[in-house]
Amino acid sequence: MSSANSNYSAKDITVLEGLEPVRKRPSMYIGGVDPKGLHHLVWEIVDNSVDEYLNGFADSITVTLHKTGDAVTVVDNGRGIPVDIHPKHKKPALELILTTLHSGAKFGEGDNYIHSGGLHGVGASVVNALSKKLVVNIKRDGKEFRQTFKKGKAFGELEKLGAIRGTGTTIYFEPDPEIFRNTQFEPDWIKSHLDDMSYIHSGMKIIFINQISGETFDLTHPGGIPEFLTKLVVDGQKPPVTESIFTVSRKEGEKMEVALQWTESTDESFRSYVNGIRTASGGTHENGLKNGVGKAIRNFMETHDIKVKGIAITAEDIREGLVGILSVFVREPMFQGQTKEKLNNPELTALVDSFVRPALEAWLNFNKTAADQIVGRIVLSARARLASREAASEVKRKSATSRRLNLPGKLSDCKSTNLDDSELFIVEGDSAGGSAKQGRNSKVQAILPLRGKILNSEGLPLSRVMANTELNDLVTAIGTGAGEKFDLSGLRYGKIILLMDADADGHHISTLLLGFFFRHMPELIRKGHVFLAQPPLYRVDVGKETFWARDDIHKEEILSGLRANAKPEISRFKGLGEMDPSVLAMTTLDIKSRILLKVEIDSNLETDKTFVDLLGKDAAPRFKFIMEHAARAVVDDLDI
């Protein structure tokens, strides 16, 4: 045994009194002395004012960042901190609250605070301990009082300033530079935090005064959480899957409010709040929300017998792209740490789950169109996950066809680099490509010929798809990349137009290309960049008049509209390659006379099912489709 240990005695024990523990170990109370910890001082004081609002005693908070940038004042119109003498400690209650850890009205059994974010009883005292100066003005009982503190200790007695109307608390503080390396507050950080709070507490008026810039902001948001959700979705810059959002609230008992909307983002985003305090690390309440959402979606799919062959839907698939806000009010929240970033109340998981699940399930049943879009989005997410996994496990092979080209040699590019004007025509075969090149407007129209029917990419991982020369050239020409590397900012053409023969083979090639875009470049379609050209299949001459028919139905419509004694001459084009370039230009390429069909996705679920049926490995759905439509098919011309 060493002599150092033998000398260990009572005199070696250090007792930290009052607020000394806070100044000695500030990170234990505010998470650190970095900018996040500095701004946490503001949140603690604001949270106390919010507690007055939550319990019906205040409706207004004003936060002022002073011109020096290192001082903040928070004002509320609540009851005002008590100033009467405490019967046991013989000090004003205000002084006890600000100079003693774990003191306050939120520990007792009474009804002073039914809902509160500050149950640790250390918030205001911690701010006081870490401030070189803190001044409190109290208005209550028709009088105004003031007391000044420095570094956690009272600096003078409680002063009575005189008679005044109204009630409330005003706290001014300056963080201590001995504790914080930088005491300059960020105006945008404070404004953003207060802005979020005003959505959660839609009935509370919040004003932020930035004296540095001379600006005053009224951050009140009467639209509440639904309005907040819309803001988050817009700020995320990802299009929503549905226009309508799901909202549900409960005002009685444990108050709760939820708002959800699925987007095209590949990430999930949740914001949860407890008694108005952001729980950035989630917790039991957020787990309950996620569980409830998962159960509601699965129940809806089971009820409506929505099955996806070969894919198991995971919880991550369900939540991909989901933006959600959850606000709960709990009488006795158990936070993890003083910074209150995570809730640990075990009963909240089941409470939130049982609140969200039936409400969301009922909403899905009542809003079938939105439900279809959401489930379709989830199925696409599952397919993308499966494809990504297969691609990761696939052995990469060196192949001459997989090398990347700057631009395909067979691409006849246009002169314009203006995205709004330029068009890329994808045509079938070199012969059609030749006619299109001669008939195009080379200033704004580019031509990329493909050799015959391209690879069927349905169910294939992107690595195998991009090993195909034709599709690799197509992606290179478009400029965006594909799959996870897709970047719309690289798009080289405002319109991507599929120009195929107007016969069954041409329709098949168009379907293969659309399937490829839907699986690996869906944003091209969602952003409105993909079109189908409408070349004629028939030419109908009546005297000096000429009509162009896109298909058999259109031909019959033209013929039925002719006069009774007309003698039409009908000729059928065998393909675009045999069409005169001037005719192709006039009927299909010329922006003034052509007809383009914009490709749109009305339903993710139905579109997914359609491509699986038409292009998937299982031939049974195609056989069924052919048999169901065979009776309506009429063969007028048979090319042998």
Annotation keywords:
640 residues; alpha+beta; Ribosomal Protein S5, domain 2; Rossmann fold; 9-stranded mixed β-sheet; 5-stranded mixed β-sheet; 19% strand; disordered N terminus; disordered C terminus
Please give a structural write-up.
The chain is an alpha+beta fold. It folds into three domains: 20-218, Histidine kinase-like ATPase, C-terminal domain (Heat Shock Protein 90), CATH 3.30.565.10; 224-391, 2-Layer Sandwich (Ribosomal Protein S5, domain 2); 400-535 and 593-630, Rossmann fold (3-Layer(aba) Sandwich), CATH 3.40.50. The protein is built from 21 helices and 22 strands. Strands 1, 2, 3, 4, 5, 6, 7, 8 and 9 form a nine-stranded mixed sheet that branches. Strands 10-11-14-12-13 form a five-stranded mixed sheet, sandwiched between helices. A five-stranded mixed sheet has the order 16-15-17-18-22, with helices on both faces. A hairpin with a 6-residue loop joins strand 1 and strand 2 (72-76). Helix 7 packs across helix 8 (224-236), helix 9 (284-303) packs parallel to helix 11 and helix 13 packs across helix 19. The radius of gyration is 35 Å and the shape is elongated.
